[in-house]
Amino acid sequence: MAGAEGDRLIRVDMSKQTVSIEPFPEEWKRLGGRALSAKILISECDPACDPLGPDNLLVMAPGVLAGTAAPTSGRISFGGKSPLTGGIKETNSGGNPGQHLMKLGYRAVIVTGKPADPGKRYGLEVTAKGAELVEADDTKGMWNYALCEKLKERYPKTASFISIGPAGEAQLTGASIATTDQDHRYPNRHAGRGGMGAVMGSKGLKYVAVNPGKTRMRQAADARGFTAFSKKVAQAYLDGPKMFQGGTSSFVGIANSLNCFPHKNRTEGQSPDVEGLEGQRIIESFPKRGGRMHNCLTGCVVKCSNIVHDADGNYKTSGLEFETLTLFGSNLALKSWEDVADLDRLCDDIGLDTIETGAAVGVLMDSGGLEWGDAEGAKRVVREIAEGTELGKALGNGAVATGKLRGHHRVPVVKGQAVPAWDPRPLKATGVTYASSPMGADHTAGLIINPGLQPEDFARASQESQLVNAVCDSSGFCQFLQPNLDTIRQALGLFLGEEISRQTIADLGWQCLEDEWEFNRRAGLDVADDDLPACLREEGVGPDHALKFDVSTDVIAQAKVRFPLRDELFMEVRAGG
């Protein structure tokens, strides 16, 4: 057991089975979440390491404002070298572990090494007194929901949990990391992308239990000013259009109209069965079944998470989002959101990224391994991932692995990672993000939903969206609150008790991107990796299949060369695009 005063770092060495706690570096005080993860990785991790070997790091870093009174600000980032892309990866999640770690003053947990016995499982217990590794062989192989029930019996009601399912333990590169929601009931929030669950599994770490006890919220240097500003930000959101009040599932119709609702492994951009996949169908089920919208983390005013019940009124899943309805719904030619909810629950439980796994099943169907629209077949093969069959392992390792197993050519990925729902052919600036982002194909890196954008604006729009989102993912704010750079810099300044200029906050985001690009360069990724696959350049969607990704690699390269800072970046460009 180890402990210290003030902001701290927890270091866990799984090879030596040691935990140490040290002061948090003063020069990193403005860094949290994604930016802090990038700084630690570029400073301490060999980019050439084996992603599933002892030299990779797993960084768990809440945003700077997590644990404070700032609204919707408790997200936590998970970072490391991705076993899926071979480059740097940051993937973040809601739930309460980020809030709890920061309340306790722990700015990051850095895990390295791996146990001598690969069959051993461990838990990390974090409290106000310190942190300690404990043996957890009795949790080996457990699915996330059963694991959560066991942990709730073992730890106080105030504790929240970070965990992996059997996919992470098997070190499958589509594995996610789960976090429990604000009620500490369900492991239904996921840091899904890039295989960070596999990295956690390679460390033999099955779970982290964070118990803040009665610890108070973090206090700002300018407490009165910070409280007033936080209330202003929350009220501004509540008085606005509240575009996420029905959850991201409400975007299904819009995406379908834009040819951004991929059908049958992206051979079409619209689904003939869109009505059965509309988020409104989920909302309509609430009065009879008892589901509702809720906030996944304490202090959230957005409340985008839908609690989904089955026909008998029993809880099934939460956070059934647009991306899942697309990749596991339209992408597989499924007709009903209820089947997608079943698949979402399976992925939550096994510990899988629904984007990567949905894309993998799409490749399987496209190659003739399963009939289009076979919902029960899709559920069966997803269960095979936990069973460890040859097909299950391929699906659990993602779209590329499934394509190799099936000898199939249409595999829509960038840097080895499956393309998200928002299709880059109608949304070409988003395609520039997928190609140029250090993260590979990732809509949260810089989504631009503007099909009318002119070609000369693609690179700038992508870069500015990437920069704002990097800052947002470092702050702890959720992108769905849609904070702009002014909002973030003012909140950060009031919290830290210092003036933070527009240039300073923009530089923070740009430095994060540069650290990530540099990590990838050292890892061996080059300009050839900054492109979209041939199937998206050569095959179109929309009328006459005319919409193709035809943006030149020169334009993609421009997104990585810094544009002059514009006032519009602060007033118009918001997190999320």
- State the low-pLDDT regions, or none: 1-5
Let me know the average pLDDT: 96
The CATH topology of the largest domain comes to: Aldehyde Ferredoxin Oxidoreductase,  A, domain 1
* CATH class label of the largest domain: Alpha Beta
- Report the span from N to C terminus: 44 Å
Number of strands: 17
* Shape call: globular
Largest β-sheet summary: 6 strands, mixed
Helix run count: 21
Tell me the radius of gyration: 22 Å
Percent in helix: 25-40%
Number of domains: 3
Percentage of β-strand residues = 5-15%
> Major sheet: order of its strands?
2-1-6-3-4-5
CATH superfamily of the largest domain: Aldehyde ferredoxin oxidoreductase, N-terminal domain
Which class best fits the helix and strand makeup? alpha+beta
What is the CATH architecture assignment of the largest domain? 4-Layer Sandwich
Features:
Aldehyde Ferredoxin Oxidoreductase Protein, subunit A, domain 3, alpha+beta, disordered N terminus, Aldehyde Ferredoxin Oxidoreductase Protein, subunit A, domain 2, single chain, globular, 3 domains, six-stranded mixed beta sheet, 37% helix, Aldehyde Ferredoxin Oxidoreductase,  A, domain 1, 577 residues
Molecular structure report:
By secondary structure, the protein is α+β, with helices and mostly antiparallel strands. The protein folds into three domains: 8-210, Aldehyde ferredoxin oxidoreductase, N-terminal domain (Aldehyde Ferredoxin Oxidoreductase,  A, domain 1); 243-415, Aldehyde Ferredoxin Oxidoreductase Protein, subunit A, domain 2, CATH 1.10.569; 418-571, Aldehyde Ferredoxin Oxidoreductase Protein, subunit A, domain 3 (Orthogonal Bundle). It has helices spanning 33-44, 97-103, 144-154, 166-169, 196-202, 223-239, 252-257, 279-289, 322-327, 337-350, 354-366, 375-387, 390-396, 399-406, 428-436, 458-475, 485-496, 502-523, 534-538, 553-558, 568-571, and strands at residues 8-13, 18-23, 58-62, 76-81, 88-93, 106-112, 122-127, 130-135, 160-163, 177-179, 189-191, 205-210, 292-294, 305-309, 315-318, 413-414, 417-418. It has a six-stranded mixed beta sheet with strand order 2-1-6-3-4-5. The chain has a six-stranded mixed beta sheet with strand order 8-7-12-9-10-11. β16 (413-414) and β17 form a beta hairpin. α11 packs parallel to α14 (399-406) and α15 (428-436) crosses α16 (458-475). The longest helix is centred in the last third of the chain and has 22 residues, at 502-523. The relative contact order is 0.13. Residues 1-5 have low confidence and may be disordered.
